Amino acid sequence: MGRIYVADALRKQGIAVHAEDGWMTRGSSTGFAPRGVALHHTAVRSSDADPYPALEVCRNGRPDLNGPLCHLLVGRRGGIHMIATGRANHAGPIRASGPMPDGDGNSLYVGIEIDYHPDYQEVGLEQRRSALIAAAVILHSLGQRSASYVRGHLEICDPPGRKIDPSNFRTSMDGARRSIQDAMNARGWGY
Ligand SMILES: [Zn+2]
């Protein structure tokens, strides 16, 4: 298994999808066997005028960490940028959480980065909605029927406390999972 292609499925959900050049071949297919979805915030301040300021770093990485750094980036206004279909450096070493095992988070999870800075702003309402629908779409593409396969980076990071994202997310991760399960059930993707 490896690579996820969900752009068309996201468009069918009414989400504005931006396909970044090269996204369909970005990230290695080896060492990538995702079973769940990890949610993150970028800790970059966004606005309606500058809705996805972390796009370039998500695509190309940083001096200390090679890109891609996620699969999908959700902008302030709810648009989604397709960054990569293969392995991305978003999670690092992880502990077990819910039904998901410990191990290599970059192999086990599809990564959704949500572009906002929790010290300065809550996640945007449309932004949050798009992120949760995207999580449902990806779970469906992975053959999962339970939202329990969506975890926050703060829930899986090893050691605990290494990460806090997503924070200022208007809900707990349990609340996010309830919304995702509702979205899956409404589409016939749940139980
Ligand atoms: Zn994170």
Describe the structure.
This protein is an alpha/beta fold and 191 residues long. The protein has one domain (7-186): Lysozyme-like, CATH 3.40.80. It has six helices and ten strands; from the N terminus they run αββαββββββαβαβαα. The strands form three sheets. Strands 1-6-5-9-2-10 form a six-stranded mixed beta sheet. A two-stranded antiparallel ribbon has the order 3-4. The longest helix is centred in the last third of the chain and has 18 residues, at 125-142. The structure holds zinc ion.
For CATH, the homologous superfamily is named as Peptidoglycan recognition protein-like
> How many H/I helical runs?
6
Strand order of the largest sheet: 1-6-5-9-2-10
What is the ordering of alpha helices and beta strands? HEEHEEEEEEHEHEHH
Task: Report the mean per-residue pLDDT as an integer.
Answer: 97
Task: State the low-pLDDT regions, or none.
Answer: none
Ligand identities: zinc ion
List keywords for this structure.
alpha/beta, two-stranded antiparallel sheet, six-stranded mixed sheet, 10 strands, globular, 6 helices, Lysozyme-like
Question: What's the short version?
Answer:
The chain is an alpha/beta fold. The chain contains 6 helices and 10 strands, in the order αββαββββββαβαβαα. Zinc ion binds near residues 153, 163 and 165.
List the helices and strands and how they pair.
Blueprint: H1 7-12, E1 17-19, E2 36-41, H2 55-60, E3 61-62, E4 65-66, E5 72-74, E6 80-82, E7 93-94, E8 103-104, H3 105-108, E9 109-114, H4 125-142, E10 150-152, H5 153-156, H6 173-186
Parallel strand pairs: 1-6, 2-9, 2-10, 5-9
Antiparallel strand pairs: 3-4, 5-6, 7-8
Helix pairs in contact: 4-6
Residues 40, 153, 163, 165 line the site of zinc ion.
